[in-house]
């Protein structure tokens, strides 16, 4: 019974987006469990899922050493029958990669998979074998629609060597529509003579390409006439003289995935399952069957099963054979790479240490150079050096981060900025002998100029040797719910509603509750189906995006290694694998990341220089300025890199950083790793002197001294393993990696034993050993390496310095680098004004695209009387800082910030630049000037009018809108009477109340310079017992208060056990709200999404940090409604009409 | 909203039982419209001129939401008719109350222009009380009367949304601070026109009465009550082109039906019909839908005979025929006070070249496709007349993997146009010839239960069954059919013997299985293995094995 040997040769995974309903891993595991000899993953014109299958197969081989994973692809050429190809050897693999690259390039950029023409299914049956199928007359109408990927028989013929091929006789998928209306094709049954002739013709064509490497795939799926079909297939194969082999056209690993497959088909066709039911497969047979069943099914074709095993045996290639070679470094002629690297390193070192290289650093360089030479990574370092040098030459700020900062060579080459003389570095964290894995260098570039760097890499290495890493965009809860709900036939409104009530960080478990909130019964059939399918779909790949910046470069041709396809962005190409896949195969990538703060710092430096200040650089910012640390200790850090978040701000007054290294600790300590490892509080206690610092022995003291005996960095954990438990540095690195949440438990146990045993053997207490293990465990994924924290701390210091000494330039630069950071422009502007910086409104006659600095004479007021009047109404007292302890700022008469046109919602950068350019010929006097000279269309003018940017033209918002409406849609479309000159008198337009002004400001600019929206409701709110944020913060511990405010941020950190942190803001300042999960769950869905909230809660004080522990949340509109119930007459725009401002983090 | 979604919503708000008792009505704009027309027709008692609003199609290329909306207002031109009801205030009240008595909650307003009346009716709550009648505080004001000439002043306070403007325009007006109709009216008209799409100006003009409101007048004429009327009098002479004719014969005294006799009624109907057909025929049209009404005595509901045709017809004999067929099936009132015939819809009658040798009778049979179509249409008319509309349908194929759902009954009217070729075409089976049986029972028949199959064209099962001699199972019961005997070890394999139609069939061949797993999205997954079973006597049955409970069913018989 069990003697049937079989290998599945035709299986589609979910990397054929929407055409397979199982992960490659699931297919491999199931095939292995069923005792198959092998499994071919043949995705549709892609190899994106193959590395995952490879990983799963490696695991599977632990159990069944002879299990074979066959790499293949399903191809659908436009002019021939569909084909499955399998890779036989290395050459074949390279050929397949080239073929798929060619196909992708032909198709152009690929986003979401297009729906394939349905009639393709019947193409082999219809298209006469000898006639070219692209002749319009012979093909059904929808085949002519551009197919997704264009391959032709000739393309495949050119890349055929090293490949084996099988032609599925049942057509593309054996798909047989139940409806006659589909494609208008009549299926006359397999035995129809025409069909047989066609099949023979197709086989003959492919035979000319593949010769004796071609098989005919017999696939049946219990369609009633299986016996006839098999007989026909057998006859066809005999006539064409091609051996026949059994296959399954597998789409999912087990039968229970059929509903999901149907739902995906509906998504693919953009319909509902019920709507496309006629096009669905009629049964769930396309899973991996037991071998006994397969044998029964193919009993009439002797040898069909055996042949599958034989083919599997001929496919000897495995991804393990791929060897990666670093690109040739750019080395001056006649010199070796190692020599060149050493030269550059020593030269750099001399530049870094003009007073002589410290011995320690010299030793490090020698040690690292030796290790690099041993492992052959010279070219890699030189490559990175080259990229950095390019950026420097172009004036693009950049800085290495991550583990690379552990290298003295990187410091000397200028890749990183962390001085190994000041910091203890651990090169093994970066490059390790044991790991034998590509080192990982991340470099941050200014986010608005990174594209230049990427294009430089393409130019230098060529498009066939460099490409971006892919990122597999997976279904997340929201997208999965959307697609499945649509497929199940829910209305679009309802789908939107569900998507809206889904909370940040919700999982499938919360879905039934959310469905109830969206007005559906979670127990209904529809909803149970929805929940089940969503549960399966979450995590499915959806399409290939591009990784944030990982570039892959090779010495040889990259297309021999992996297929490359164009990315959605023009000028970019991506490989089909993501970074985990590349890691798995040990392929180098350099991460060119974009960092908004670098852009901001660069811009701030420029603004300072523009206004006559010194030309600053990262390295020339004065170090260790006490004023800066004083500011940081006050938690006055809105806008400062990394330490502006709420958690950081509440830590700062406790930690009170006094030197650079304190910043390094600050950056590293507010991380999930240290928090989970319970290291924060011991550290704070020790720092405050409340707890003695003790060390078990001297070696450990050396490791932990600078962090007061608490390991805070990954390096410390590793070093601890070395000095306390006798690990080699490489082993310590493995330990760190094993801690990752995704590693298998068995591995951790082994390290645990080894660590504890090692420490016991060295005379340390078991208690201490367990504690160290727990701490290291916490680091797994979430800890920072010290080097990384140090790189970031540099930027923290520089940005804090800018904020302290050049607040106007810093804020203007921040506004110009949005979106970035924790705060929206409204809060940045508010914070700047609280520091005495004058902020001027957007105006077409004064603003450039980005925010700029202006000198204001105290007498001159811009923006008309309205604004100056409003200024006095809405002077913003108080500070945004948590403690409210901001010192009195005697604002020096500094420059004012002029908001840029970028603040105008809906206005494009191109239009903004046109306005800037046109203004050089003189100021604009009428709206028509903007149309004529800056070439604005009516919509752009409307955006400006709504934003109140026409103030200097003497137009208030409504009159500006009225004027803008008078301009034609397109400039010049009314040549005879261009300006609609019906007088500037628009007295019939009602004026706006200050409240309306503010709300319009928020809607059009996202911020208002006149007042805060909440203050208009103050009287009403006060009547309901709502106090201001300032009052609340000053209230005593335990007081019950109600505060109303705009929701600025929502956070649900993974470490906080479901707690939600909100920041709300009113005209007096902001308050930090902590919401327990039960309170959050009880709040109405409207409150969870509301722009303005009324929070009922209790004050909690901890040192200088004040929280409002919420007991009830209420959407402001509802609260307002109660108050208004009596006087409700005509609705007027109020808080409820504010757009949502909140930034959500999790 | 789809049914699935509706059920999920319903269950949440009313408990899951609600799903089982809920009445499902599919969205049907055409039916909504028909109902509205019916109400409008009924409102003729208040005014001779009534009709539906006709929303203006949006002039933008992108159709806005309002353009797609079906009409929801009924317009009555009450100029001069209010006096009959005691003034305008009394009229609106009467309309509201009488409609309420029929279960319809209407909001009613009278104003100078249709557009203003619509705005007022939408916001009756916001308008001042027009009459001394005090509404109870808990009730909402449901009517309003805007005195003549006071449209602009009285409705100035209404929100702009009361005007029929598209959403973008409304948002823009709101942005300009226009929160009421009055504010919009204060804008200088010429400048408004320069800045907004033309339909805004048109809308305002209609509101103020400077532009006529487009609306869809109900066709057909009514006659004054009580006045005896010669039906022949009202024909082509005063019917305008748009009018559909209507003819009434009113008796001075109620006439007992028995005195009159069916023949007399038919003769009367024929006369009325002729009166209606003549003006239509003059325009080249024929009757598509008509209504014959027999009014009973006071307090008795009239008997209405609706006749729908598949193609417009002018043939009086055919029409009378249809009325007669229907009359047989309904119970006319015992006393008649009036008989009327009203044409509800008309269409262009097909002009045919008559060949010399065919006679133009109701059953004009020729061999051309055209005359065949006429014949088929007439046949359908007669069938519907006799059996009722729901009993006549055309099975249409639907792509659905579950065989019993693979067709739907379609009204032959909806299959436009009814041509001979269309009807004569053989049904296509997508699954290939011979894979689906010609005859299928309404639902699968379980094979282990007594089976009473009435197969068309088959003799009823004989009362006495002959046990199959070779079968091990002796015949124990005369009534019951018995379960098929499985082949042996494999319970999945098709049976070897079948007890059907009161006798044993021995299976010679079984083809299959064809596995069907589907319908998970509308209920429990259907999982079946179908077999085509050929008996030794040559009959072919379509059986399936339900894979969930292992039972066997008969699902069809091949011819």
What does this structure look like?
The complex is a heterodimer of chains A (1146) and B (559). The radius of gyration of chain A is 33 Å and the shape is globular. Chain A is an alpha/beta fold. Chain B has 559 residues and is an alpha+beta fold. Chain B is built from 16 helices and 17 strands. Chain B has helices at 3-14, 17-21, 29-42, 65-68, 88-101, 114-122, 151-155, 167-175, 181-186, 189-195, 198-208, 257-260, 262-282, 316-329, 369-387, 420-424; strands spanning 49-53, 74-77, 108-110, 143-145, 215-217, 246-256, 285-295, 303-313, 335-348, 394-397, 407-410, 445-446, 497-500, 503-518, 526-535, 540-546, 552-558. In chain B, a hairpin with a 2-residue loop joins strand 13 and strand 14 (503-518). In chain B, helix 14 runs parallel beside helix 15. The chains are: A alpha/beta (1146), B alpha+beta (559). Chains A and B meet through helix 8, helix 20 and helix 40 of A and helix 1, helix 10, strand 14 and strand 15 of B.
What is this structure's SSE topology?
The complex is a heterodimer of chains A (1146) and B (559).
Chain A: E1 7-11, H1 24-33, E2 38-44, H2 50-63, E3 68-75, E4 83-87, H3 90-107, H4 123-126, H5 153-158, E5 163-168, H6 193-210, E6 214-218, H7 226-240, E7 244-246, H8 258-269, H9 291-297, H10 304-314, H11 337-352, H12 359-375, H13 378-394, E8 398-401, H14 408-413, H15 427-430, E9 441-446, H16 450-461, E10 466-474, H17 477-487, H18 492-501, H19 511-517, H20 525-537, E11 541-553, E12 564-566, E13 573-575, H21 579-585, E14 589-595, H22 596-610, H23 626-633, H24 646-655, H25 660-669, H26 672-676, H27 680-687, H28 698-704, H29 714-725, H30 729-738, H31 745-761, H32 766-779, H33 786-805, H34 807-816, H35 825-834, E15 839-840, E16 852-854, H36 864-873, E17 896-898, H37 909-919, H38 927-933, H39 938-946, H40 957-966, H41 994-1005, H42 1018-1023, H43 1029-1034, E18 1040-1051, E19 1060-1066, E20 1069-1075, H44 1077-1082, H45 1085-1089, E21 1092-1102, E22 1105-1115, H46 1116-1124, E23 1143-1145
Parallel strand pairs in A: 1-2, 2-3, 5-6, 6-7, 9-14, 15-17, 18-23, 20-22
Antiparallel strand pairs in A: 3-4, 4-5, 8-9, 10-11, 11-14, 12-13, 16-17, 18-19, 18-21, 19-20, 21-22
Chain B: H1 3-14, H2 17-21, H3 29-42, E1 49-53, H4 65-68, E2 74-77, H5 88-101, E3 108-110, H6 114-122, E4 143-145, H7 151-155, H8 167-175, H9 181-186, H10 189-195, H11 198-208, E5 215-217, E6 246-256, H12 257-260, H13 262-282, E7 285-295, E8 303-313, H14 316-329, E9 335-348, H15 369-387, E10 394-397, E11 407-410, H16 420-424, E12 445-446, E13 497-500, E14 503-518, E15 526-535, E16 540-546, E17 552-558
Parallel strand pairs in B: 3-4
Antiparallel strand pairs in B: 1-2, 1-5, 6-9, 7-8, 7-9, 10-11, 12-17, 13-14, 14-15, 15-16, 16-17
